[in-house]
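Researcher: Quick one. two chains, 708 residues in total.
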Amino acid sequence: MLLWTFMTPLLLTAAHMCRAQGCDEFTDLNIGHSFLGTSLRVRLLLYTRENSSCATLLSHTDFSAYPSFNLSRPTSFIIHGYRPTGSPPVWVHELMALLLLRTDVNVIVVDWNHGAANLNYLKAVENTKQAAENLTAFIERMQDSGANLSSIHMIGVSLGAHMSGFVGANLKGAIGRISALDPAGPQFTDKPPEERLDPDDAQFVDVLHTDIDALGYRKPLGHIDFYANGGTDQPGCPKTILSGGAYFKCDHQRSVLLYLGSLNRTCTIRAFPCDSNTEFLDGKCLSCDQFGADGCPVFGYDVSRWKNVLKKLGQTKAFFTTNAQPPYCRTGYKVEVVVWNTDVHWGYMTIKLHHNGTEAVANVDHKSSEFRKFTETTLFAQFDKDVKDVEKMSVTFSTGNVFKPKYKLRVLRVRLTHLELDKTALCRYDLLLEENKEVMFRPVPCEDADF
Amino acid sequence: MDVELITLPANGNNGKSISNDRITAENGADVTCEVTERDSLLKTHAAGNQNGDIPVSNSDVEAQRTVENAHSCPESTARRIWEELNDTPFSKVRLWMILIFLLVIIVAIILFSLWICSVIHEDVDEKFDPSLFQVPLHFNGSFQLPNQVFTEELFTLSTNESIVLTTDLEDKLADLYRSSPALGRYFSKAEVYSLRNGSVIADYQLTFLLPEEQQFELQNFTLSREMVYNVLRQSLYDQETDGSAPMYIYPRSLRMF
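Model:
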């Protein structure tokens, strides 16, 4: 509080000086600042539909000078995380613009680059608490001026996610929603709820995990926790340190890119509640009956539609996989295979769907699947794109064995069911899949199966 | 000693101005460096032999030899190694060659056995005994040929036209089921037993023969109506692309009981 009262006049004067020059910008620091360490300074940049290209630096106390800051509108906060290089986050403008495109809100970019830019991560962690105090005071001020706490949405990235949690806890969980994008793990893992984000911090807390094995947080933190690609290694991210800095931040940063993808509506990512990623990949969690007509929750901004049912469920872990590049969404199919081989066979499948020259590919290779005589094997195939009408389909069976004799998988029926659309399942009967040989065929609408 | 004797001519070839005898002495020293006593004896003998040629006193030679002797051991070893290297060193070459050869052989044997394994690998699903297939199983049904014109001749099965058409259709069905990986071995015959009006509607009967022991399992899965019906149905969809052909069968008209 002391710091806050001390900084207010400073910010005010800064605001007035900048106003004269036009737009206010996000603080741009460099590695030098980070090296020397920066002390916390919280700047609030306001964007609205009226001035979406030009930020206004808000005063923390006096809102009268900002007619565009309309408190009858909902307010979304964007809070960045640790900035070891001091550079402004590249995604801030896009996120702000997409939020404004969706709804008429006040977007406030919380610029705490002074405080986050510090080579000493522990110092930045310390600053999150202080910055949260600062923000809490600001939001209380907003409430005094007539804002409704339940219309406040905070989007926090990494450290910013926990900061949102602290703000929410300070306000007794009254704020509407917190979206946490890969909440920071180091210094927060295994801490009690009051020292990290938790579901009580807001009316609805949705969390995305993309880097649980390094910079992110492993355990569930919200009402729904999305684990993209299991929450560990994101496709398209470098696997070795040879790729430089991207090796460290790519997985972590993917969380923001996925959220942006959910905002711009290029495609929706359906997430499946499940206990573990392995079970999800095994296709054991494809049932969405508990969500009724809405189906399984859609990842990202629009998950608020499932708020009530998810709150009833307590904490939900939901899984999905993505492509390496945008559009990140994949199309899920259930593939059921019945074979008549006398011996049990194990192997992987590559399935391709063809339509009008476009080809969608799915590799079912997270583990080798078991094919047992007259028993249905369910595979969960996730295709890199959606194919409107499947004209042709091809299947390649492989075992990964180099020295063993080439096996033949003798398929009685393969049945392909779209997971979301209520389309008739497609079938093909009587296939001979020689190992590593692609077999292409035209699937026919399934008849009601007897077995 | 044998080896040393063989190397003698080589020494002579080197153009040394000293006689063979002396070299023998020297060589003797080479072989047994320690045996200085014997060495000096040989030396005296050598000196005696050479007396006429080299006008030096015995004692002088003696002294010279002693000096020479002191160096001869390492010097000649080095020379021997050098010679051995200069000659084709069969023994050493053979060692690494044998090692590589053995390695190649081992790899070859492994690859060969793997190849043998995959060649003699028997796919249990490819082996069957047709004589055990005794229990008949029939499927009846019909399909429509929209591009055929129904005539009175077709109605009577004994006419030429109807025989041509039914054999054609029977062959088609038989070819399809015989080439089926799952059903082929059980297939017995296909019969088109009547042609009706409706462009032309053909009634057919398929006969399969099952082994007695697995007949119920097979009837539930491999030879279920679903399989037999859909194998034919999907083949009709495969030919759907040219719907104007005279023998075109309308896929949706397919019935099977």
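Residues 1-45 of chain B form one domain.
Researcher: Thanks, that's what I needed.
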